[in-house]
Give the backbone structure.
Amino acid sequence: MNAPLKLGLKQRYSLLTSGLDWTPSYQPFEKIYPYAEFEGIKIHDWSKWEDPFRLTMDAYWKFQAEKERKLYAVLDSFAQNNGQMNLSDVRYVNALKLFLTGVSPLEYQAHRGFAHVGRHVPGVGPRIAAQMQSLDELRHVQTQVHTLSHYNKFFDGFSEFRHMHDRVWYLSVPKSFFDDARTAGPFEYFIAIGFAFEYVLTNLLFVPFMSGAAYNGDLATVTFGFSAQSDESRHMTLGIEVIKFLLEQDPGNLPIVQKWVDKWFWRGHRVLGLVAMMMDYMLPKKIMSWREAWEIYFTEAGGSLFEDLARYGLKVPKYADVATAEADHLSHQNWATFYQYCHAAGFHTWLPSAEEMDWLSEKYPTTFDKYYRPRFEMWAEMEKEGKRFYNNALPQLCSVCQIPMVYTEHGDHGATSFRVSDYKGEKYHTCSDGCKDIFDGEPEKYSQAWLPVHQIFQGNCGGAGLEDVLKWYKLNLGADNLQQAGSPDQKLWDEWMAAKDKVAG
Amino acid sequence: MTIDIKTLKVEPRRNTFGHIARRLGADKPASRYEEATLDIQATDNFHYKPLWDTAHWHYDASRTAIRMQDWYVLRDPRQYYYASYNIARAGQYQATERNFDFVAKRGLLDGIEPEWRDTVGFYLLPLRHMEWAANMNSTNMCDRGYGTAVTAPCIFSAGDHLAMAQILGRVGLALDGNLGTSLQEAKTAWMEAPEWQGLRKLAEDSLVIEDWFEQMVAQNLVIDGLLYPLVYGAFDKAGQTRGGTGLSMLTEFMNDWFAEHSRWVDAVIKTAAAESAENKALLGQWCRHWLPVVKDAFAPLATRVLGAQQGAAALDEVCAALSKRAAALGLS
């Protein structure tokens, strides 16, 4: 026998993988791939798909197993050494509560969504890539649960993350975002999650949380972050490959894809408002401001991305300019909302200290002192007088992003931004032109939304009183909610720090 | 003498998450499998009906006729979560890798009798397409299934089938000196050879099974339950006398995998059957429907590999074993 031919990685991968598919003849193609065409996307030649990773399954297992061994060694060590005591401050833990209740369940949704795409996109290359991403996303939810399991042993607000995600008013913001993607067709899902979220916006979600962990002494979470980094890079690459592939395959795909990019950019931007307030208000040691992160990761990185995609005719997402201008307001308006409603939230809030307000003034020179400092100072006065302000009226929610209608008008920050659409004799309110466009594009879809405030008023959330609703949320009153000061978390932390000082002294 | 390192003692305020504690009956320490799996899938208050299936929610228990009071009783006896799954498979594949090296170094495939070598090319390599169908079916069960306890192992299974398709591809490359011609011939056989058409029809039919739990029975119990013992048992055994030992080393992964996979499949089907008389009847009906279909599909291949008489005997034997297994799971 002759010596075997030397195979390059690409050639070997292609031999082992690309021929696996066949053209069916015993069952019609449309029955095997029933969702391939209804979105109007046209693919002429799946074999033109260039697999960016060329990962065979055995290589996948090997890399991932190695990463898992290292990650779990760190998690075990963190737990054994009570690493939570080395945090910058206990307030930081609230960012993790937001992450576990709001973000980790989305990783699970991504896992199942990529399984759907990994079954239904015709084309063996993208199907395998989607299946691997489905596995990765399962990894992310499971490792996040394992990482934060240790925090749950000591702090409130983690314990009912799964129950809360399906019910609590502000968690319907991330949940409806992902439900929207999961219920879309396979190509829209690919663009929504693979491109708009993973590629354009992931640096604004993943990087702030993981850098926040690094800056605030959270060794467990930052190790998870490092460990997930190579998965995320793979997902980003897949996202960009998919959009290029769709645009190259047929000119008729461009308007469809553009509409999705516009929609998912705006929808993603709204969800990221939670990250904005986390960065500016919740991290005891701050990485950078939301405004700065937006400049770096959207304006600059996104700018060159869309320059690159311009050759396909794709434009910068609609309302990107509005999002950029509103970056000076977003975190302040969100934190102010949670401050008023933290009796109904699964984490604690506080007012920024004098030093923190100075930092905010410096980072937001055109807006903070003008619009937001006076409000926080007034609330601080009220706290001093023992009249801590809680808002007891239920807010109206946007029918698309489901955020309370607290945002101000683009260009007029004294007025609430408020839009109305009529659909089948009913009125639907939205918070912005971006959300109104999305509603008007698919009114049948958004008119179905499970809006938490509507549901409370309809009596579907445990009862009419606030306490009934909070019990239905499984929110442990007086522990999970209200102010940071006076919380069981704070009390425990103060005891630990006192004990540490005693030992050190 | 003992060494006593001094640390600050901190007492946990709780041991596990609320939903886990409710399942364990008390707040006590939970395993990583439990925390990674139980109740992880959303269950309530979905926002929109899927554009691709307006009759259901995207997570919807009514996508199968099987009814469970609690879908989280369908546990995985292997207790796989992502980390433990990947670490187990990476370890198993190391053995496969060593076997490929060993077989190449010793030139063990050169010892296969020429006629048997052709037979192997004919029966073994097209199975990569069967593996690919199994991969798609497993991915589909993960997509359409209900509850992480049963859906997470489905995506693991999908990965396993892809890996086995690629092992078969590597066997082909080992046989043809990395030219890939054997894989092209195998695909032609898959598409055209009469012995393969029943199996290709079976693969395509399995891809369009509407009820994902029926697909679980058809793929995981019946197709897998016949394929692995027949091919990596009976066919492989016939090759032992014809210089095929080296080949057995390359496909040993499949035997180990099948034994482990069956433990999970048995647990799922047995538990679902034990739930109610209706489930039991339905599962039995699916099994009775698919068993003769799959048997018929394999018959021409068994004849081609083992001859008419021995082929039929081998197929009867694996079918009898599967019937016994199904009976033990409560399926009549």
In short: The first helix of chain B runs from residue 18 to 24. Chain B is about 70% helix and 0% strand. The mean pLDDT of chain B is 97. The radius of gyration of chain B is 23 Å.
